């Protein structure tokens, strides 16, 4: 397709949601362009995946390859680039890229994913994947019978604690706020859990994390009591940083509705509040950020775009 032509659909992103959207779009014979900053998405930072249906015990990198090969079978046009902004003019979307000027399309699927919110403390980068994880749903089972810390006092952290209660030997919950802010229902769930009898649980609230420590693997963390200004070392084998996700919605946050967390608001058809622009995966308000969910939402978004186009 030449530079001035208008695509039926531009998919922005290169993770599971974008691959699935591109595959579904091409199977509907839409002229599709996929623009991705880094093909693979969060899977590039993951290790073994064992919860993607039909593909047990797969290395994340190999799953990315399977996604890529499947999409390439349908000759999806791809651009290795970053989308900076999206505007709508006379019913057509204009996408400004860093390296390839402006690309235009009749519909857009935004599948730009999210970044895990980080602690930004010494040791965090070094021990990511070596005992430090950002996802109990993904990596919790690797820490069966272990002593673990769950960092954070919000809903993500308490859902993480609930994931770990049947698994861990000891759970330490650390948060900088003086008390947890998770929904009371989640806090009660933890307090009243039948597993509390078998698990040693301790909360350190009003404590900041100073450092993640270890040798080859995590061995603990250093925290500071904000009231007394005293430091403490806690020994654990696993650390889950559960302080939320930052959605990559910046390219469209002037165009479509987002919630307080910056997630793109979508309906059950993956449609945003702007006709012709759809969104899928971790960048959206759809709860539970998982590969299989992102892939399913990507498929829905592409079918939504197809349906929108044939009704024009
Ligand atoms: C360490 C780790 C382990 C995990 N383990 C599991 C697991 O075991 N099981 C599971 O189901 N889930 C797991 N997850 C979560 C899972 O990876 C995500 O839910 C999933 O990748 C979300 O897919 P997505 O396509 O919405 O977004 P992402 O995977 O975040 O992909 C977003 C894509 O958009 C691109 N992009 C972003 N902004 C722009 C832009 N402006 N222009 C162009 N491209 C852009 C990015 O480069 C990337 O390619 C894990 C996540 C992490 C970080």
Which helices and strands appear, and what pairs or packs with what?
Blueprint: E1 6-12, H1 16-27, E2 32-36, E3 48-49, E4 58-59, H2 60-72, E5 77-80, E6 83-89, E7 92-97, E8 102-110, E9 114-116, H3 124-127, E10 132-133, H4 136-139, E11 147-151, H5 155-164, E12 170-175, H6 184-191, E13 200-205, E14 207-214, E15 218-225, E16 230-235, E17 238-241, E18 245-247, E19 277-279, H7 291-310
Parallel strand pairs: 1-2, 1-8, 2-5, 8-19, 10-17, 11-12, 11-17, 12-13
Antiparallel strand pairs: 3-4, 6-7, 7-8, 9-18, 14-15, 15-16
Helix pairs in contact: 1-2, 1-7, 5-6
The protein binds flavin-adenine dinucleotide.
Residues 12-18, 35-39, 41-43, 45-46, 49, 51, 82-83, 111-114, 116, 134-135, 138, 248, 251, 281-282, 289-292, 294 line the site of flavin-adenine dinucleotide.
Describe the model.
The chain has 312 residues and is of the alpha/beta class. It has two domains: 6-115 and 245-310, 3-Layer(bba) Sandwich (FAD/NAD(P)-binding domain), CATH 3.50.50.60; 124-241, 3-Layer(bba) Sandwich (FAD/NAD(P)-binding domain), CATH 3.50.50.60. 23% of the residues lie in helices and 31% in strands. It is built from seven helices and 19 strands. The strands form five sheets. Strands 1, 2, 5, 6, 7, 8 and 19 form a seven-stranded mixed sheet that branches. The chain has a five-stranded parallel sheet with strand order 10-17-11-12-13, covered by helices on one side. It is elongated and about 65 Å long. The relative contact order is 0.18. The model has no long low-confidence stretch (mean pLDDT 95). Bound molecules: flavin-adenine dinucleotide. Flavin-adenine dinucleotide is lined by residues 12-18, 35-39, 41-43, 45-46, 49, 51, 82-83, 111-114, 116, 134-135, 138, 248, 251, 281-282, 289-292, 294.
């Amino acid at each position: 397709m030449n530079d001035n032509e208008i695509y039926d659909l531009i998919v922005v992103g290169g993770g599971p949601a974008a691959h699935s959207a591109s595959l579904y779009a091409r199977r509907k014979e839409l002229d599709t362009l996929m623009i991705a900053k880094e093909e693979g998405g969060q899977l590039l930072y993951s290790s073994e995946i064992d919860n993607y249906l039909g593909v047990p015990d797969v290395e994340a990198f190999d799953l990315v390859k399977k996604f890529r090969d499947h999409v390439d079978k349908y000759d999806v046009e791809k651009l290795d680039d970053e989308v900076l902004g999206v505007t709508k003019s006379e019913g057509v979307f204009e996408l400004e890229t860093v390296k390839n000027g402006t690309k235009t399309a009749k519909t857009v699927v935004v599948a730009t994913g999210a970044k895990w919110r980080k602690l930004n403390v010494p040791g965090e980068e070094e021990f990511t994947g070596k005992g430090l994880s950002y996802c109990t749903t993904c990596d919790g089972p690797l820490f069966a019978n272990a002593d673990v810390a769950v960092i954070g006092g919000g809903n993500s952290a308490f859902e993480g604690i609930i994931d770990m209660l049947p698994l861990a030997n000891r759970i330490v919950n650390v948060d900088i706020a003086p008390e947890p802010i998770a929904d009371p229902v989640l806090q009660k769930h933890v307090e009243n859990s039948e597993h509390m009898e078998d698990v040693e649980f301790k909360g350190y609230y009003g404590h900041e994390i100073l450092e993640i420590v270890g040798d080859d693997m995590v061995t603990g963390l250093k925290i500071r009591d904000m009231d007394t200004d005293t430091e403490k070392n806690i020994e654990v084998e696993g650390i889950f940083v559960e302080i939320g996700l930052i959605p990559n919605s910046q390219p469209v946050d002037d165009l479509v509705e987002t919630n307080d967390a910056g997630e793109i608001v979508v309906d059950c058809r993956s449609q945003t509040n702007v006709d012709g622009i759809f969104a899928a995966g971790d960048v959206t308000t759809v709860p539970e950020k998982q590969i299989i969910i992102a892939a399913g939402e990507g498929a829905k978004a592409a079918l939504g775009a197809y349906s929108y186009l044939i009704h024009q």
